[in-house]
Design a protein that fits this description.
heterodimer; A: 255 residues; mainly alpha; two-stranded antiparallel sheet; 8 helices; 2 strands; 74% helix; B: 317 residues; alpha/beta; Rossmann fold; Alpha-Beta Plaits; 2 domains; six-stranded mixed sheet; four-stranded antiparallel sheet; 14 strands; elongated
Chain lengths: 255, 317
């Protein structure tokens, strides 16, 4: 899996590099800066969840589809122990894959034989933390989805659909938040214009909630902004998905 | 009936697995209804029943793969309500429906994984296990490429990890060819004989089960119809004689008049259950104007005994 991560990182970095070179060649002398790293981090928000879901399918999914989990239950392990063990292993793999990806990205940015202006500033650190939180949250969700759907192929399809779904939902929220408070209306007869309140405008507590949700989602692409909502959302996702997973595995009857 | 007689074998009547009033419902469907069983230590206990009778459900509950709606069971004296049941369950090995194996690992590695699950750090016994189940020469071949018989034997080897006191095998000879059936039988008998492992086994192939089991439980519609040892079954099976005549229709009125219990097999074959000599049969046939072609002793098979039991339960005479 780590080799796969490294290969994907090199491919995405290569793509970003080529794009950066095309841009910079037109406008200014070639060099690498934090924008280069940021683009790779955005790509990692898609690459790493894909890798985590493949790992979950290969690890937990195989246990369930081969029914080898029956052998574990037969040894006297509780279902909670089995679930937590799977979760811990998947989280460790998610963090290791994240580390490989980030180290490769930063190493290429820093040590590529050309001018490099990469700096580990607050924005970069925020981005790194944000991707790590996303990986951990995704790993927790992958495990519960795998236990919920015994068929590992079906589970991976559901997990992969999460990514575009999160993008769509985030964009929908953004559209709602961007709706203006009022808009100008022109009377056709008199030619006068007046302001009318926008019925689609969301205000009050709903706006606060939506803003918090929007801020907590890594897929809003504001990758340098790290809010407290990100930590809360990540924690909530891990707790909720683990709780759902434990309930699912304890109620499940294995054949 | 071709079952082994256990006249010289004494069973310790201590139960290694006791089931008491176990019930399992799925919605309104009652799959198990107050099932009670005691599996004697050292026995090979055959669970006989039709498809859907509740055999697999019973085994799944006892192995922890499913929860009972009500009732309890105990393994080695430890109740299912006791937290220690998890520790005691390590003394049990099982194959439910089909062997649970990693298809991309070799036989050795599959067993090694189970050793790790059990917390065992020494893998010295694995080769002996492979030899016991006749998989020693498989090398690095992936289990996914094994034949069905080899997979079943690997499943038995995995179930034997940790030297369990009891093996629970759900139809382990299903789908095997005759050679595979013989191999499996030899392995199970060896395990029971040498390791004194108690075996709870269910099978559709009743003839084969009769060559293995020392005790039986007959289950139908989620209820236990009867439990008995092989000796008790031997004494209970209906002895009969089978006669072949030129025309069975002509002989029935004579049998009915004499009150003889019989069952028609086909146009020229009749099974007689009453205590009657061959000389008497010939005399009655003569009276009916029928020639007797042959008379043979024909003991009821395990299958026949079970079908009669089910028929009585259903109220069919």
């Amino acid at each position: 899996m780590l080799i796969l991560t490294a290969v994907l990182c090199l491919l995405s970095t290569g793509g970003t590099f080529m794009e950066s070179m095309a841009f910079y060649y037109i406008s200014r002398p070639r060099f690498l800066d934090n924008e280069f790293v940021k683009m790779n981090l955005i790509l990692s928000l898609f690459m790493l969840p894909f890798i985590i879901s493949v790992f979950t399918m290969m690890f937990t999914g195989t246990d369930i589809s081969c029914r080898a989990i029956n052998n574990k239950i037969a040894t006297g392990l509780t279902r909670t122990q089995i679930y937590i063990a799977d979760l811990v292993v998947t989280l460790i793999m998610a963090i290791m894959n994240y580390a490989v990806y980030m180290i490769l990205t930063l190493a290429i940015a820093k040590f590529w034989p050309m001018r490099s202006f990469v700096k580990l500033d607050q924005g970069m650190i925020n981005s790194l933390i944000l991707v790590l939180l996303t990986c951990i949250s995704y790993a927790a969700m992958c495990i519960v989805i795998q236990y919920f759907f015994s068929n590992k192929l079906f589970a991976i399809i559901v997990v992969l659909f999460l990514l575009p779904s999160l993008l769509v939902v985030t964009n929908q929220i953004k559209d709602k938040l961007d709706a203006p408070y009022r808009y100008e209306v022109k009377d056709k007869d008199s030619g006068e214009s007046y302001w009318e309140l926008n019925p689609d405008y969301i205000g009050g507590t709903s706006r606060k909630v939506l803003t918090a949700v929007y801020n907590s989602c890594a897929y809003n692409m504001n990758i340098s902004d790290l809010h407290a909502e990100h930590y809360v959302a990540s924690g909530v996702i891990i707790v909720l998905s683990t709780t759902a997973g434990l309930i699912s595995i304890n109620k499940k009857e294995f054949s | 009936m071709g079952h082994r007689l256990q006249t010289q074998r004494r069973f310790v009547m201590e139960s290694v697995l006791s089931i008491k009033d176990l019930c399992k419902d799925y919605g309104k469907a009652h799959i198990l209804k107050n099932v009670s069983l005691d599996i004697p230590k050292g026995s090979i206990f055959g669970l006989v029943g039709r498809n859907g009778a509740g055999k697999t459900t019973l085994m799944r509950i006892v192995t922890g793969l499913a929860e009972a709606t009500s009732g309890t069971y105990s393994i080695g004296g430890v109740s299912s309500n006791d937290k220690k049941i998890l520790t005691v369950r390590r003394r049990m090995g099982s194959i439910i429906e089909s062997p649970a194996i990693y298809k991309n690992l070799s036989a050795y590695d599959n067993i090694k994984v189970q050793y790790l699950n059990l917390g065992m750090t020494s893998f010295a016994d694995i080769e002996d296990l492979l030899e016991l189940v006749e998989l020693k020469d498989t090398g690095k071949k992936h289990a996914g490429k094994f034949s069905l018989g080899m997979k079943q034997r690997l499943g038995v080897a995995i179930a034997l990890c940790g030297k369990p006191d009891i093996l629970i095998l759900d139809e382990p000879i299903n789908g095997l060819d005759p050679q595979g059936i013989i191999q499996m039988r030899e392995i199970l008998l060896k395990i029971n004989r040498e390791r004194h492992t108690t075996i709870l086994i269910s099978s559709h192939i009743l003839e084969e089960l009769s060559k293995l089991a020392t005790h039986y439980a007959f289950i139908e519609g989620g209820e236990i119809l009867q439990t008995l040892s092989s000796q008790e079954l031997e004494s209970k099976v209906r002895k009969s004689c089978r006669i072949k005549v030129t025309s069975a229709d002509l002989i029935f009125p004579v049998f009915d008049r004499e009150g003889i219990e019989y069952r028609v097999e086909n146009n020229d074959t009749v099974d007689i259950y009453s205590d009657i000599t061959a000389k008497q049969i010939v005399a009655l046939a003569d009276e009916a104007g029928v020639d007797v072609i042959s008379i043979t002793e024909n003991n009821e098979s395990l299958e026949g005994y079970f079908m009669n039991l089910v028929a009585k339960k259903d109220g069919i005479s």
